[in-house]
Design a protein that fits this description.
Blueprint lengths: L3 E5 L3 E7 L6 E7 L3 E4 L1 E2 L4 E6 L7 E6 L3 E3 L15 E2 L23 E4 L1 H4 L5 H5 L2 H7 L3 E4 L3 E2 L12 E5 L5 H14 L3 E6 L11 H4 L3 E7 L2 E4 L6 H18 L4 E4 L13 H16 L4 E4 L21 E3 L1 H12 L12 H10 L6 E3 L4 E3 L11 E3 L4 H5 L13 H13 L3 E5 L19 H14 L15 H6 L10 H22 L19 E5 L2 E8 L2 E8 L5 E3 L8 E6 L15 E2 L5 E3 L3 E7 L1
Parallel strand pairs: 10-11, 10-23, 11-14, 14-17, 17-18, 18-19, 19-22, 22-23
Antiparallel strand pairs: 1-2, 2-6, 3-4, 3-7, 5-6, 7-8, 7-9, 12-13, 15-16, 20-21, 24-25, 25-26, 26-31, 27-30, 28-29, 28-31
Helix pairs in contact: 6-7, 8-9, 11-14
Amino acid sequence: MTTGSTYRRRTGASFCVWAPLKQSVELKIVSPGEMILPMEMDSSGYWTATIAEAEPGLEYFYRLDGTTDRPDPASRLQQRGVHGPSTLVDLSLFEPDDPRYTPLPFADHVIYELHVGAFTVEGTLQAAAGRLDYLAELGVTAVELMPLAHFPGNRNWGYDGVYPYAVHTAYGGPAGLAGFVAEAHRRGIAVILDVVYNHLGPEGNYLSDFGPYLSAHYETPWGRALNFDGPYSDEVRRFFLENVRQWLELFHIDGLRLDAVHAMIDTSATPILAEMSELTERISLHTGKNRFLIAESLMNDSRVIRSRTDGGLGMTAEWLDDLHHALHARVTGERSGYYADFGDSEMVEASLSQAYALSRRYSRYWRRTFGNSALDCAPEQFVSYIQNHDQIGNRADGARIAALVPFEAQKMLAAVILLGPFVPMLFMGEEYGETAPFEYFVSHSDPDLVAAVREGRLAMFGDSRDGRTPADPQAPSTYAASRIRPEEAESPQQKALLKLYRRLISLRSDLRSRDRDDPIPPGSRLGLHSAYSVERNDDIIAVSTRTRDGLIIILINLGEHDETAEFASGHLSFHCMLDTAAVDWAGPGQANPPYISEETAIRVRAQSVILLSQE
């Protein structure tokens, strides 16, 4: 039994909705023509009906208890908005996945996060597909799409979606997504979809009219939590598990990014996240192509990424906020909010070596001991970044890193992320130093809700250190200002930065292709899974790994002054593969010769990175 409407060319259409507490549910056809058909309920509370002569494009509501018309909770298309009828879609028209497409191992990915509406002038998936060649040339191997689930109006980050199965019509609907995935896979690029399973948006959210989809006990910062562990929760869980299946099987999405999993409150013996990871593994086996789940979690809890057999939830990886916070606070000097725990180079070292800088450590922000250990987890179980939609958009000014730090610091940060231990992720426009803000934007139709959103943003930044007032989230100009402008990236620094990003990604691929040999001998502080060694001397951090070709060392100077690196080289000689301070990257100039012997003192320019390879 498939939730929602399903069209089959030979048998017509079937309709299925879960409404266990309703006395009656009817199928109301509104186009073409109008008619009302009875539906039958089974023992689990599912109501079903079939129409043999139905064709794609048919529009319908469900009539509840003879009085209330509501769109399908599992609608695949909402052509007339969140309050309008649902549309029957022929999903069989979508192309099968390209048999020549072979996904990369997750550890080898370079992820590029984008908002479909703000990525191009057109703001559609088709237009975004037109930029895939550019991303492939950059070296991107996976594109992460911010949420596409249908939301009110045509402007939204996507986290106010209320139809989890429906791709927003403004982006191109389900056909637009299918086309984008096909074009990405033809270029060997994976597609990751950001999904929200912790709440639904405030406008057009009719789930509660059908049944106990929402928790009677738990709240999230965005409204009532979903009912994953209370009475009737079995079918709520099934609703979202089938949503996972839709994206991974039907649309051939490679992976899902699960928003704020700490707000998916579930005290079940088998948490819904564990079921999702189990389902994802089954789909991988069935399709023969690796599927994966990336969690966003604020808790620094390694159980999220530990295997289910090890008592974990089985997520493939999780976003690593600690490294972002440590780097951002060090180079900007910001200390407000969650940056209160960060700011010195020691916290950068801590995150590079153990992922969670806050690992069983007292947090001034949380006002308690925070986090647990992830030292035995693999580096590829963490996704790192110097900016993402949250870290930019959840600022009063929506400022990107290019508007906050000097050019040399931008290059240094890029090198840390792209050459470092974890799976790197870029945010759209970062590669050329985009300076347009990425503000929070919405397009609600309810004036009271619009006022509440505005007031919420003002309250959020009421104590902003710079006293800036956030842009009006409802204003079309806020959305327009958040669109990236690659055509304007013509300055020498922007051109050099783009060239550097391409080089860094190429070097990362080269380093990933070298087989690792034994871990570095004892004597240095071991990093995650003994794959990396991390040493620090004041503002200089050395990240080392041993490959079959020899030792690779990344020297990072977080400070504002040139420094001499002092570390245990083991009487070796090195080739300088890259120096972000080089003139090639519009820097002040490389401070070392191309080849460095054991007797040579290594000079590291201020806010720069040097990549050394053993000769």
